[in-house]
Hints:
- By secondary structure, the chain is of the alpha+beta class.
- It is built from three helices and three strands; from the N terminus they run H-E-H-H-E-E.
- It starts with a helix and ends with a strand.
Amino acid sequence: MAVVKELKLKRVILESDSMSVVSKLMSEVQDKSVHDPLVEEIKQSLRELEGYSVNGLGVQPMVLLIY
Length: 67
């Protein structure tokens, strides 16, 4: 998400092959796992944008699409 802030982007599409990651990022409930700080940091960064989408993929790695 640092690149999003650095480039002052307003909208992003975040895609992951991990449905667990997608679920955690889309959930309104705070994550209680060891990954909680990172998940909450990403969620806060997404909320600061004008628009975003978090999508699950089949077998591809996590990517950030800038539009």
